[in-house]
Design goal:
Blueprint lengths: L12 E6 L6 H14 L4 E5 L5 H10 L8 H25 L3 E5 L2 H11 L4 H12 L6 E6 L2 H10 L11 H17 L4 E5 L4 H15 L6
Parallel strand pairs: 1-3, 1-4, 2-3, 4-5
Helix pairs in contact: 1-8, 2-3, 3-5, 4-5, 4-7
The structure holds adenosine-5'-diphosphate and magnesium ion.
The site of adenosine-5'-diphosphate has 16 residues, from helix 1, helix 6 and helix 8.
Length: 218
């Protein structure tokens, strides 16, 4: 088994959203949060990189279009942000029995810096295990999208950042990387076709979350 889900005190649940820029992660997270609010489920939403004061500073560095960052230091910066986020936000929220919803998590590093930039997968997994203490989501929603469509959607939002301007071949490798991660852990991943309409996707996500929270109001 590649990942070890955390123990679940009370009704805690850790859900991550993955996929390329423009896939609809923020859109679906917003919809899931409204569902959780209606169901009266305590929850915490966060994102990578970011989510802590350190993570926010690291995010500014990582997304700065004026900086050239090599793949290994890029990965280490993500890992630094992740370590702080796990320790200060995610584990405490799970400990309080909350649903934690994270916009990107370690799978993004494995896909971007592994499949995308060619760093050794075992190296990435070793450092990720150290940064997270082996914490992986119970459910990872992968919004799968043709990179061309994703870039078009992201471009409509405004100025592209450093990641969005990387070339199409990179984005094709990234998509393959995500799909391979999902294939290796079908019990954790739910792969959704991100071209489906927003309401359909919302229903699929909510059904999966409900199945992991058996006492939620239906
Ligand atoms: N299912 C969908 N179908 C069509 N467009 C969508 C869908 N979900 C999101 N979008 C649009 O695509 C763009 C990117 O969505 P967003 O949620 O910001 O993606 P991400 O957070 O993955 O980068 C937004 O303009 C959004 O309105
Ligand atoms: Mg987003």
């Amino acid at each position: 088994m590649l990942s070890q889900p955390p123990a679940r005190p009370g009704s805690s649940l850790f859900v991550s959203f993955e996929g390329p820029e423009g896939a609809g992660k923020s859109t679906q997270i917003g919809r899931l949060l409204r569902r959780l609010e209606s169901a009266g489920r305590p929850h915490t939403v966060t994102r990578e990189p970011g989510g802590t004061p350190l993570g926010t500073r690291v995010r500014e560095v990582l997304l700065d279009p004026d900086l050239t960052i090599d793949p290994l230091p890029e990965f280490l910066l993500y890992s630094a942000s992740r370590a702080q986020l796990v320790a200060n936000v995610i584990r405490p929220a799970l400990g309080r029995g909350e649903v934690v919803v994270c916009d990107r998590y370690a799978d993004s590093s494995l896909a971007y810096q592994g499949a995308g930039r060619g760093l050794d997968a075992e190296l990435l997994r070793g450092i990720t295990a150290a940064a997270t203490g082996g914490l992986w989501p119970h459910l990872t929603v992968l919004l799968d999208l043709d990179p061309k469509l994703g870039l078009e959607r992201a471009a409509r939002r405004g100025q592209p950042d450093r990641l969005e301007r990387a070339d199409l071949a990179f984005h094709q490798r990234l998509r393959q990387g995500f799909l391979e991660l999902a294939a290796a852990e079908p019990g954790r991943f739910m792969v959704l076709d991100a071209t489906r309409n927003e309401a359909e996707l919302e229903h699929a996500v909510w059904a999966a979350v409900q199945s992991l929270l058996p006492d939620v109001d239906r």
